[in-house]
Amino acid sequence: MCRFIIYAGSKIRMSSLVVEPEHSIIRQSYQSKEREEPLNGDGFGVAWYVPHLSDEPAIFKDISPAWNNKNLLNLSKVVESSIILAHVRAATGGLPVTELNCHPFAWKQFSFMHNGLIAGFDKMRRNLRRSFSDEVYKIVIGSSDSEHAFGLFIDHYLNLMEFKKDHLQAMVDAIRRTICDLEVMRKETGTDEVSLLNFVVTDGHCIVVSRFASDACSNANTLYFYQGEYYICNNSVCSTESSKAQKPILVASEPLSDDVMWNSVPINQLLIVDLNRNIKLQPV
Predict the structure, then answer these.
(1) Looking at residue 45, which CATH number applies to its domain?
(2) Which of 2, 102, 206, 233 is catalytic?
(3) Is 2 a catalytic residue?
């Protein structure tokens, strides 16, 4: 079911998310606390933004387990960014372990990650691809349910922006419509299995995250957020310090530490982070 984290705030080293915390994303790749199966070893990916060089994210991903990739360890020591995404993958049954299926996925300024599964994806995939615009059909080159969800998001976003919608609101509405479309198609296939749709999308400035289960009474995948004054990680201890800078925000499948400031996102809610890193929770 995967694990992910996204950080937005003052510039930090990638290692302070990926390596250093007591429950870092690398530790979650082999010792997840909130999944029945603790391993997430079917590849990994990281994305980060360097706005003065490009609006598009830089991405590094590989099919090797995150805990066993020296390139990731070395890279994370020297990369600094104010927006960082990291994902460790547990492949959905029947989907191949290839670099094309590793998260995050990217298109233009957007990065996208998913924790969960689209129930009935094998039955709906043909019709789903038929619904794509020509542009999105060329973009979606992997076989994962997650990348196909990203394709739906892109099409909805482009359609909404034709009506000159507010950019962040278009992102929010595009995620909502993506979830709605997937639910309609799941029901059309007669699939009773529960879809688990924890999505993350960012343009390098704003962030929209969903915690969704098609049966709200089921065990939705976990999701937490953390906002403090200043994020710092020393000797595996992560904390906040007073700062005049904008408050950092972290959203993660599992907390990186035992800090009581981690809050659970309610089931079937969207967490929305605007340009000023203000947080809103809204129903899906």
Answers:
(1) 3.60.20.10
(2) 2
(3) yes
